[in-house]
Amino acid sequence: MVQKRLSEAAKKRLRAGRMLQKGKGCAEVALAVGVARQTVYTWKALLDEGGIDALRAVPERGRPAQLDEGQLASVRAVILQSPTEHGFGTELWTLKRVGAVIERLHSVRFSTAHVWRILGALGFSPQKPDKRAIERNEDAVRQWKRRTWPTLKKKPSESGE
Fold it and tell me: What is the Cα–Cα distance from 53 to 137, expressed in whole angstroms?
């Protein structure tokens, strides 16, 4: 028999079920597993009727994911590479570019909002590119700020105007 991996929701239900079997109250269980008390009452009714297997068999809600773990890992690997390696003109990943790569790799199209969610789930966060010129001379900038800028800066007039 092939054993199916349990989702986080199923693990939560089973943990709650075991706590209920040990005599813990619904409010205590709800607090411990991080769900609403009414949810635990629903799970308790399932547990009383069909045992712990009834909690395991609760169907998952929501639309099934379009990318599996392996596909998400391949997207992550691509993003860790340079965008220019994948035919883009600059060294900057954008939501549109990531969406295009996902579509190219896995023939699945996502909205930019969903690409944002996928990137968040993969552990990426938004980054702003450094807007400094490559030719920037830090010593010259420091000198200018120290010597030239104070002479150019407006000074309050003595008459108070």
Answer: 68
Angle at Cα 62 formed by Cα 60 and Cα 66, nearest 5°? 105
Of 65, 24, 26, give the one whose Cα is nearest residue 45. 26
Which pTM does this prediction carry? 0.50
> Among 15, 6, 74, 70, which Cα is nearest to 39's?
15
Q: Which residue has the tokens 């789930």?
A: 121
Q: What is residue 2's predicted lDDT score, i.e. its pLDDT?
A: 46
- 161 — pLDDT class (breaks 50, 70, 90): low
Q: Is the Cβ–Cβ distance between 40 and 20 less than 8 Å? A: yes
Q: Which residue has the tokens 């104070």?
A: 150
Q: How far apart are CA 9 and CA 3, in angstroms?
A: 17
**Among 65, 63, 58, CA closest to 35:** 58
